[in-house]
Structure formats: C-alpha cells, structure tokens
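Reading a protein record of the kind used here takes only a little practice. Think of the row as the fold of the chain written in a discrete alphabet. A record is reproduced here so that you can trace the correspondence yourselves:
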Amino acid sequence: MLKIIKNRKLYYYISWAFTILALLFIFTFKLNLWIDMTWWTQTEYTYSKLDVEQVRLSVEEIKKWSTFSGVEIINNIDVYKVTWENKIAVVAWFDSSVNDTELENLKVDFKNKVLKKLKEVDSTVLETLYISIWKSFWDYIKNTAISTMIITVLWIAIYLARAFSWILTGWSIILSFSSIVILSLFHDVIVAVWFYVFTSNFLPDFKIDTLFVTALLTILWYSINDTIVVFDRIRANLKLYSKKHKKDLDEIIDLSINETFARSLYTSFTVIIVLIAILFFWPETIKWFVLTMLYGTLIGTYSSIFIASPLLYDFNKWKAIELYEKKEYNADDKIVV
C-alpha cells in the first residue's frame, strides 16, 4: 500500500522545484512562436526570371543586416513560389522586443531592401501584395487565452464547492477542495508549458500557436477529471469510515488513493499510447497540440495523486470533518392530537 501522506513533503519539494524552474525558464528564454502568435509580414512579387533558392539566399543576406540596437530583429524567413503563377512570396517573422512604431519602420525597410535586391537580378520584379500583422493580434490571443483559463478554473472551483456541500459541513472544508484544485491546475499548466518551451528550444518545429493554447485548456479538463475521481473516492470513504471505523484523515486519503491508483494509471497509460501514436503517424499540423497534451497527461496524473490529495490532508488535518446528514421527513410529526 502506497504511503502518500507520509512522504508528501518529498512530492511537494519536487513540484516546487519544477514550478520555480518553469517560471524562470518561461520568463527568461525566448518563446518559439508560430505565425499566428508573432509579428510577421508577407510580401508577394511577380517576376520573369527569378529562382526560389536565389531569392532565399538574397533574403537571408538582408536578414543578417536587419538589426535594432545591434541585435537581429528577424527570427525566421520563409520563401516559396505561389503555385501556377509567376509569383514568389517572402514571409518574415519579427522579434517582439521592439516597440510598435519602430517595428513597423523596420518591416517597411526590410521590404524595400528585398525589392531592391530582387530588381538587381530581375528588373521586371514588382511588389503585388504586402501584409503586416501587428503586435495587437498576439496580445488579443494572449489575453483571451488567459481570461478563458481563469474563467474555466473558477467555474470548476464553484462546481466542486457546490458538489461537496451536500456531503460535508463547514465551508472552510468545502472550499479547501476548490482551492486545492486551483493550485494543482496552476501547477499542471505551468509545468506543461515549461516542458513544451524547453522542447521547442531543441526541436524548432515545435512552436507555440493557437493549437497550443487549445491543448492547455484540454489539459485543464483531463487534470480535473483525474483529481475529481480521487476526491470522490475520498468523499465516499469519509462517509464510510470516519464514524463507524474511526479511521484518521491520513488513513482515509491513503486508502482512497490506493483504491483509485490502478484506474488512474491505466487510464493515463491508454491516453499516452494513443497520443504517442498520433505524434509519430499523424500530420505535422497537430503534432504541437499532441505533444502539449502528452506532457499535460503525465503531469496531471502525477499532481492528482501526489499533490492534490496530500494538500487536502494538510488543509484539513487540524479540523473536525463532519458529514452532512440529510434530515428525514416523518409525516407523523405534523399530526396534532
């Protein structure tokens, strides 16, 4: 039988270490953002005698000289030919550290330099399309994602408080369930983001995009699902053992974890197998989403067993937990003789 409560401090230290490292890493390392989460431009040119590889080399040379305060301001360049047309598109992703006004000037300067360079090779080159995405688009996505996560977590907390209010008495005990869920979800999302950002620094193909945000919201669902299963077993065992068999809270929580451990392990293992299969055999476009889900599944399983349940014990170990007893209605009590 696993003695989770006895060894809970070890699990706390591990989680604290992961969380602190995650926060430091996220705020100090450069995020590998995809096209829908960065500041980018797309320019199309018509031509009569240009070669895509020749254009790519020219643009890469200009990229090296596009600097702000001595630092390159273009993160990435993509050059491709528009199908069935004599058009070449140049897409450039810009750094986020430059203010909006200066960034727009740098974008225009880069565009003009590219056009000038291409005209040296082919005098017939003309600029036919120019698109510039501003910083406000990424800010909108970021703010919407944060707001959505906060609202989701709060609704989950309210639901749990409501669900357990019919089982336990005392709002401080009932709210402890909700508070622990919020803490564990914060832990899961932060550590999952860290793992993904860490991976994207070694594998540039794994970028942060809108699917990544969707994956984080999905992680919230999976993590809370696993935590509620354990909490529900604790609730049932409190009802069964707290009065009749006089078991202490730590014994009830350890018993509940052990009763649900196999279920959590098998469920997570099944999900992980499916995610690994999708990661290796499905299209590239969803691999980033799947990798985030894979990290979230592992972390959510760990936190629901080794973090959420021990926290429940520490929140309530000095409290007298009383069960809500439903009063039975007796019709004879209303009879007046």
Q: What stands out?
A: Residues 249-281 form the longest helix (33 residues).
